[in-house]
């Protein structure tokens, strides 16, 4: 891991001095006694942020899964439509008529200052902590009915087109429009929202819950709405679409490629539309994301005693099946650096670089004040409904192994061999008798590929992040090989099947196997048995489970994508180790040299050595600490002494996606809102509560990702309770809301009882054995380290495998030939 350059600075400067070691010791020992003696202060939540969240345990919760920005969220107070000092709007109720696109029934309230009985937090010591002003809303008696007419909406559309200089992009009728196209139409819809919000002085509640109710099919904006978010006809088939269309027959666009992330809690945008989250105390910007990283998420090496880094990489691999927010790219489909653009005097509308504090311990010595950051591309809700900024997921939402095949027909076509049901591979090591590599990315060789030697290429796969870190490249390679292994076996059993049938059936089996491994091996370790049982995300030992629910939105939530499932960043190991087939250590390289630089696998035999590393290297443990290999050296070009800071990016991403803070999520999960820093002391590891008190103004300001990874682990789990709750809810939705889930019965997609029994034999260790070149022994549960008693190494041949004979058909009748007695 090497020594950290994020060790607390002893230089005495205003903001860093607060966290210098001496200062810390002094303050900590002075303030702990006052913690123990002071009364627990009572703080009511900030009114501008005061929402009535629905928790997973609430009876109405089901309905929140119906779509983002559902009208179920009640905002208790909102900005004044007249901008007068204290006259506000209570939540409006909404109706429509033939002339009125939206009728707002408004009730005015006046916010009277509450009598504060609170004593200052950490009384007498940390007097710097400020409190948000407290108000009690009292109705003024004034009510108003406001009609936004269709003609008003039409005028707003024309105004928005003019402001944006809008020209309709080509390709809106495609079910697979590309992010730059969606971006143009989505920004137009946002502009319409802005125009209406200003004209009618809409409150955040009205923007969030009212505007989406406008029927745009009665306006000209409908012509600008891309086809993939409009209703389409569906038929029931055995195989999934690549985009996820028609998985949900009731709402065919749920869970579809290029549709927005779902909200479990309403967004917290400072302006109600798209402004970054701000402090609840005074509306000022939150502390620099870089400052939070350098204060809380330093590099401390703490290897886990049980888990291997395979569990970390599997988490990332599964994430790459589920989520990818669209980053903006340049005209050559390449990444660009906002800081470099600004140095050259140009800009991009989605550029929003992170400002680095003057006394930053990593970047300041190099005179760097600007850290690259771009907002994610905006997207459309179903039917292009108006409302606050939404961000698109460029992947299909179910666990469907799309990291092998892609989330669009176009990408699948690029990756398929169209022969024998196979995927394209690169037989580079034929001469050595070694298994193939992924196909090389030769069309756009510099895309997300760093320091490429002229004769070598990065790789292509179903997910564009295949080269992000070397172990992902390894997993992608193993899974493409496994697809081809299964397709080849099916072809031998069913010579009458054509390419399409072989490909689709192998794909169907692969998706089922990935679902099973995730439920059987990954989630119980991640969440602990109590949580997986509570959320019913366990494997059913025998038979089918028919609890499909078409009302469950399968789409990944913002909280999951932007924070909770980034839990994995704390498990990243700073060194990439290699082991031989006897599990002996061979050597290691710093991770940053293997990010977007997968060239090591061009050496014959290295693939197996890296697999050896995956199953033998301990993961880092769950704590607030992040290896500097990614929190300062992420994608570091060879000629530079530093790279990007992934932790800072995570925080900034949450803010730009309008993600409510950590405390709001604690409440949503039923864990109770921390009322003071003191409440957080037993909840967070080490001295994180204290460090937070030095950089944030209020517990409500803490960013979700930061608070989540700092929590004390749940017993028997890898992570803390807030992330566990968000992730468990997500996987519950993914399981119940997927019509193609592997243990459903009675559908064309269902496996026979025998086939299902075989699928349930899938184990990660066997997949590694089958697809590595020569790994003869392995521990059965590869996400845990080998142990002579609890997880001994066994011969690969002793591990169970799927018996594909249960897929063999009579070529004449199509009937399956094998039945279990
Ligand atoms: C060496 C390992 C890893 C690297 C280099 C890496 C890097 C990155 C980067 C650059 C992003 C984009 C951040 C942004 O712009 O918002 C990202 C996003 C993300 N990462 Fe990681 N990551 C790693 C491991 C993991 C692991 C182990 C997990 C989970 C177990 C994970 C989960 C996520 C998730 C959920 C996202 C959001 C993806 C999206 O929807 O766009 N990552 N990661």
Automatic annotation (TrEMBL):
Molecular function in Gene Ontology: heme binding; metal ion binding; peroxidase activity
Subcellular location: Secreted
Positions of transmembrane segments: none
Binding site for heme b: 569
A single cellular component GO annotation: extracellular region
Keyword Nuclease appears in the UniProt entry: no
UniProt cross-references to SUPFAM superfamilies, sorted A to Z: Heme-dependent peroxidases (SSF48113)
Biological process per Gene Ontology, one example term: response to oxidative stress
Keywords: Heme, Iron, Metal-binding, Oxidoreductase, Peroxidase, Secreted, Signal
Protein name: Chorion peroxidase
């Amino acid at each position: 891991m090497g020594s950290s350059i994020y060790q607390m600075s002893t230089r005495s400067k205003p903001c860093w001095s607060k966290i210098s070691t001496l200062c810390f010791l002094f303050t900590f020992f002075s303030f702990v006694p006052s913690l123990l003696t002071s009364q627990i202060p009572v703080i009511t939540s900030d009114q501008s942020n005061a929402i009535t969240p629905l928790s997973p345990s609430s009876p109405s919760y089901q309905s929140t899964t119906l779509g983002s920005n559902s009208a179920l969220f009640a905002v208790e107070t909102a900005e004044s439509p007249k901008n007068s000092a204290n006259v506000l709007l209570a939540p409006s109720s909404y109706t429509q008529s033939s002339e009125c696109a939206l009728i707002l029934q408004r009730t005015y309230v006046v916010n009277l200052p509450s009598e504060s009985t609170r004593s200052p937090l950490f009384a007498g010591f940390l007097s710097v902590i400020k409190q948000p002003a407290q108000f009690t809303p009292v109705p003024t008696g004034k009510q108003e009915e406001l009609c936004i007419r269709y003609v008003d909406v039409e005028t707003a559309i024309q105004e928005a087109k003019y402001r944006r200089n809008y020209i309709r992009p080509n390709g809106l009728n495609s079910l697979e429009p590309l992010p730059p196209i969606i971006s143009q139409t989505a920004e137009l819809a946002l502009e319409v929202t802005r125009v209406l919000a200003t004209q009618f002085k809409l409150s955040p509640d009205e923007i969030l819950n009212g505007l989406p109710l406008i029927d745009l099919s009665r306006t000209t904006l409908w012509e600008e709405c891309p086809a993939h978010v409009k209703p389409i006809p569906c038929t029931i088939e055995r195989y999934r679409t690549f985009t996820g269309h028609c998985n949900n027959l009731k709402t065919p666009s749920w869970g579809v490629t290029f549709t927005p992330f779902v909200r479990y809690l309403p967004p917290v945008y400072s302006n109600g539309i798209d402004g970054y989250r701000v402090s609840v105390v005074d509306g000022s910007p939150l502390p620099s994301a870089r400052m939070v990283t350098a204060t809380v998420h330093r590099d401390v090496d703490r290897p886990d005693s049980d888990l291997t880094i395979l569990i970390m990489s599997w988490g990332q691999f599964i994430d790459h099946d589920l989520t990818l927010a669209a980053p903006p790219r340049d005209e050559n489909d390449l990444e660009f650096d906002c800081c470099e653009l600004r140095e050259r005097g140009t800009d991009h509308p989605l550029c929003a670089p992170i400002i680095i504090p003057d006394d930053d311990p990593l970047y300041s010595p190099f005179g760097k004040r600007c850290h690259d950051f771009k907002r994610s591309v905006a997207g459309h809700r179903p039917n292009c409904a108006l409302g606050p900024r939404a961000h698109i997921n460029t992947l299909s939402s179910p666990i469907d192994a799309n990291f092998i095949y892609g989330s669009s027909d176009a990408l699948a076509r690029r990756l398929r061999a169209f022969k024998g049901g196979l995927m394209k591979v690169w037989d580079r090591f034929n001469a050595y008798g070694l298994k193939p590599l992924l196909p090389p990315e030769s069309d756009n060789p510099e895309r997300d590929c760093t320091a490429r030697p002229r004769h070598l290429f990065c790789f292509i796969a179903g997910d564009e992040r295949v080269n992000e870190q070397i172990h992902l490249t390894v997993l992608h390679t193993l899974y493409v090989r496994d697809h081809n292994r299964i397709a080849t076996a099916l072809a031998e059993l069913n010579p009458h099947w054509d390419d399409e049938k072989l490909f689709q059936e192998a794909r169907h089996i692969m998706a089922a196997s990935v679902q099973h491994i995730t439920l059987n091996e990954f989630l119980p370790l991640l969440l602990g048995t109590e949580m997986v049982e509570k959320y019913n995300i366990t494997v059913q030992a025998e038979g089918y489970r028919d609890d499909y629910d078409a009302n469950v939105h399968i789409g990944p939530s913002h909280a999951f994508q932007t924070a909770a499932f980034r839990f994995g960043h704390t498990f990243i190991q700073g060194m990439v180790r290699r082991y031989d087939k006897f599990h002996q250590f061979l050597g290691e390289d710093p991770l940053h040299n293997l990010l977007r630089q997968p060239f090591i696998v061009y050496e014959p035999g290295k693939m197996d050595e890296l697999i050896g590393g995956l199953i033998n290297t301990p993961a880092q443990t769950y704590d607030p600490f992040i290896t500097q290999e990614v929190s300062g050296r992420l994608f570091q070009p060879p000629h530079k002494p530093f790279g990007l800071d992934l932790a800072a990016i995570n925080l900034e991403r949450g803010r730009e996606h309008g993600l409510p803070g950590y405390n709001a999520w604690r409440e949503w999960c039923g864990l109770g809102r921390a009322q003071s820093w003191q409440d957080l002391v037993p909840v967070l590891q080490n001295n994180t509560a204290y460090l937070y008190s030095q950089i944030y103004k209020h517990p409500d300001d803490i960013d979700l990702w930061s608070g989540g990874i700092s929590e004390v682990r749940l017993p028997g789990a890898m992570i803390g309770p807030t992330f566990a709750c968000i992730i468990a809810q997500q996987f519950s939705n993914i399981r119940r809301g997927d019509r193609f889930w592997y243990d459903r019965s009675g559908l064309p997609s269902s496996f026979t009882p025998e086939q299902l029994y075989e699928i349930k034999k899938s184990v990660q260790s066997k997949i590694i054995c089958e697809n590595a070149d020569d790994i003869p022994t392995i521990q059965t549960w590869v996400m845990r380290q080998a142990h002579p008693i609890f997880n001994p190494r066994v011969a690969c041949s002793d591990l169970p495998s799927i018996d594909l004979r249960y897929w063999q058909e009579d070529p004449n009748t199509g009937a399956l030939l094998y039945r279990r007695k």
